[in-house]
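Hi W.,

Here's what went into the run:
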Amino acid sequence: MSLVSTELTRSVDGVAHLDGISCVLERGRFYVIVGPTLSGKTSLLHAFAGLDAPDTGRITLDGADLAAVPVWSRSVSMVYQQFINYPHLSVYENIAFPLRRRRLAQAELDSRVRAIAETVGLTSLLARLPGALSGGQQQRVALARSLVKGSDLLLLDEPLVNLDYKLREQLREEFLNIFSAQNRSILVYTTADPNEALLFDAEVLVMHEGRLLQVGSAQSVYARPATTAVARIFSDPPMNLVPGSIDAAGLRLANDVLLPRPRHLDALPPGPYVFGIHPGDVALAASGIASEVELAEISGSETFLHVRHADMRLVAHLSGVYAYALGENVEIVLEGAKLFAFGIDGGLAAAPESGG
Amino acid sequence: MARIDLDRLAHSYDSSGPQPTYALHPFTHTWEDGETYALLGPSGCGKTTLLNIMSGIVRPSEGRVRFDSLDVTELATARRNIAQVFQFPVIYRTMTVFENLAFPLRCRQMPQNEIRQRVGEVAELLNLTGQLQRAALRLSSDAKQLISLGRGLVRNDVAAILLDEPLTVIDPQLKFELRRKLKEVNRRYRLTLIYVTHDQTEAMTLANKVVVMNHGRVVQIGTPQELFERPEDAFVGYFIGSPSMNMLACRLADGGVDVGSMHIAFPGADRLAIKPGAKLAFGVRPEYVAITDSSAADAFPAVLVDLKSVGAFRIATFETGGQRIKAKLRADAPIPASQLFIRFADGRRLLYADDRLVAVA
Amino acid sequence: MSVDRGKLVFVLPGLIVLVAIILFPLLFTIRVSLSSWDVAQPGLDWIGVTNYLRLAEDTRFWESFGRLALMALGSVALQYLLGFGLALLVWRDMRAGRFFRVLFLIPMMTTPVIMAVIWRTVFHESLGPANDVLRLLGMASLPWLSQAGLAMTSVIIVEVWQWTPFMFLMLLAGLLSLPREPFLAAAIDGAGPIRTFLRVTFPMIAPISIGAIIIRLIEASKIMDTVYVITSGGPGTATETSSYYIFIRGLRDFQIGYAASLSFTYLVIMAISLTIIAKVLARAMIVKDRAA
Amino acid sequence: MSALYRALKYAAILLWSAFVIAPFLWALTTSFKTANGITGGPTYIPWLQYEPSLEGWRLLFRSGGGGIAIGGPYLSSLVVTISASLISLVLGTLAAYGLSRFTYRAGFVRNADITFFFISQRIMPPVVLAIPFFLMLQFLGLLDTEVGLIIVYIALLMPIAVWVMVDFFNTVPRELDESAMLDGCSPFEAFWRVILPNSKPGLVVAGLFCLIFGWNDFFFAFTLTFTQTQLLPVAIVALNSSVTPWWSLSAAALVSVAPLVVVAFVLESYLSRGNLAGAVR
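Here's what came out:
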């Protein structure tokens, strides 16, 4: 019982939107596609929905090829990042719209509409027009409309990205509760924010430039990113990557930084590597690598300290709010045990143990 | 640059009724010369109204605006000597970058060689030197936004630069550079900068003083650190930071407050002048909730009900004394499997009466 | 599987109808132009390009183009200037703005030919008010419709009256859709009204201007009704436009074959010159990157 | 804004207003005159300068002797204009929706080419089409009939409908159609149930433009009808070429032009709401 896509490709005006996507999505599970803007997330959802036909490759649902099934006969629903509802219909009629297309009996229709409205908290707004609602409420209507059908495939294309951030936090939690209550659909959610995927604790598909880079649980992708590209995409702020090498003396970074070789890198042969460290693992200390502050970005309760040592640029993710002036001197500590090592081809060579 | 005084300023878009519905409640404040401010709040909080009043686009229904004691309340935007950067970059489409930057000076009949010198200086600062002869229309949106800012910088008569969500349309990857540039420009020129945004990162990164607004009122003015550590208003605790500050209903009880079955000491709590019937709440940031061993006197037994990992940190939800409390923990902080205790950091325990901060312990 | 299934349902009916109504007649015109069809001998014989050779020598035909160009370019230029000016006047909030907007739109709603009938009485030399107004201003009466230059002027006045509202409508809609930040920025930068117009308003309205001018030129190049009623092409042939001349040859004299060749030539010349004008306008009004 | 500027502005506005209204006022006053009121030279104020009479207005309902019997032509004009506008709007809206949503290709022809073909029909000078139309209607036996004119007007008006509606549909988010199809609508159902109910502004503007251009045509009515069918403009112009009874001519002109003044009001209200901005690009 699954959605299987095989070698999907699609290009528009010579630009590859999908470049050989193969994956298997199981019923009753929650998938999050993570990728930056234009990575092909939306194209993939459109292909799943049947809104765009792939150039090559096939998609099957429970073994049946979907190529000949038009969108309107598929069991699929979608929530967009723009708040898309039918402006001329009331909230009630918006939610009822997919059911009316299926000629459901009035009583059945009414009870299903009201049940879903209750779930997403719209009961008091059923008579209103979507245009009179706030962004968060509009997106709830869109979600209700997509849930009411009970489709096999539920696609959510960055549904929270256009909401204020507090509302986003709130809706994210509600979504999670609603999703965990269902077990028959395949849920696919896209986002550019890896933290969202981590919070959902879902199965993750990392996309970049139309390709699928890595598939796995959110925790495992975070702990063992397969490539430097994944390491940057699936970390916010992106993982710090520093070219360096391993030799008899230990790890060398940025010419003059020498670190003792940590245990988990013991097995690696000497040679050039790219070392990675999560911004959250870059620590400040009384003595360490002398660095200069380029900018302290403060986000509510967190400080992202951009520092530079020679041509090594790092971001330290600190919990709490701290004031740093531009050009201020700080000492940073890179703990060997937290370092990732990537080969110069970008592939993961070794990852810290703690994360696994 | 100038000091800007707002004197009992208020605005109502519908001032006909006996009880005006204020978009901006009466408010008195002085914007210090050379200081960087951000107006922060959710949409509809009145921050744009306030900015528009200062720039002269909106005439306030009450109160005065003074620039260095010159009353400008009735003056049109053009006569206020301000510069403004809008959400969408504004450039003169038919002109080159140089001509764009020179435009305010040409309008002021400045001699040609002086114009060239000043534009050269500003272009240098904004990294636009290499593009001076290009058509401004062909540049990327972040470069256009720099030009908008540059037109304010070339002038030497500017009282303040007002920025209205200037980074909204900028590519996320380019935001860092632009933020840095803004910060650097500000350090170099000591500008009076007033920055409107709904994005807390923008506000707290760029401004020395953040003015948090909600429902047409200024609820707190403070440094980013103050907003985080000592929210004067419950809204600030909610709006700034993620997750929001824990806010738990409580009542006064011998030298402190009772939160469910927890007793938290607030020295001097008995002497606080709190209106009878006021809504009391105990607030603590998730960052200041720590797991501890049982020995501490002010630790409370708790049960872990939810744990979410967000990369470098974990958000834990505890239940203690019938209350739910969120804590933000480092990813590598151990969580005991058996009985655990939580403790609130000293000096970070906050008490609110009717949503205003009344005590810290 | 694509959503494109059934897409022909939308476009085909209109396409078929249009092709049937227009494309067929147009092809037929080309065929007729190669025949000697006239009132005496209706029928499709084949005379090759004889008609085209004849029209090449037909000075009355070519002169009508000159008059058409003068009439169309002159009236459209005036319509643009006046329409833009009026749109700028009522653009910003003003008292009774709505009333004047509606008023300014009315002429384009009225039937040109019917208003032309009225205008003809207005321009009447002894009984019309046009000369009455001149007399009131202490000027001599003018032979509005019986002197070549004045007849042309009269037609242009009527065209300007009728179609300035169209320019006004287009440009006002354009102005109303402009963001207000650029204007604020210009005010803050210290630009006066003239600088603001030249550097902000005009560059932003240029694309719409081009569209509106082209549409009006297309319509004006077809001018015929008004001429027919007001001057009947006179005095002599002083206001005879291409359309009107073809009308005379084809539907008065019934030299169908010859008129068809005139029609086709006219259409080709119109299409080419309008394309060139569109390109030139676009180049003149829209900025290019000056960087090498 | 200085007082001088304001004075000049209002002076310009009033001057242009006078120019706009003048022919209507002239027609209005003329319509109450008789031969005597006209031959004496231009007069403007009834009772003071001439003795007003309702003869001009009475003649609207009579035939012969300067009478027009305006009822028949008026009805014909209404029938022809409204029918042609409706058909054009239906066909044009369908085509515009298709062109804005789907990809068509046939050989080297793409959507843009088809759209251009539709709209470019406006370039066609009436006189070029008149001869083949004449022959075509003659062949179909539709010369001098309302049906014949309706067919011709469809060709004239459909390009306008396509032009306005393509621009309108381009402003309607595609996701709306997609949602409808995901919710089980076929493309036509999506158009019918979701897009059309949300297209009122575009339809109104397109429809009004069709009505204006249809109502105001003279040339085709003039060349393709003779005696059996007579549209309003032809009837009025016919009056012009005979003895020219200015009074009934003026009355008829006012009656003919009046309904479109209403159109001006509706169009202006759409203008202020910003709905025309899309149409002018």
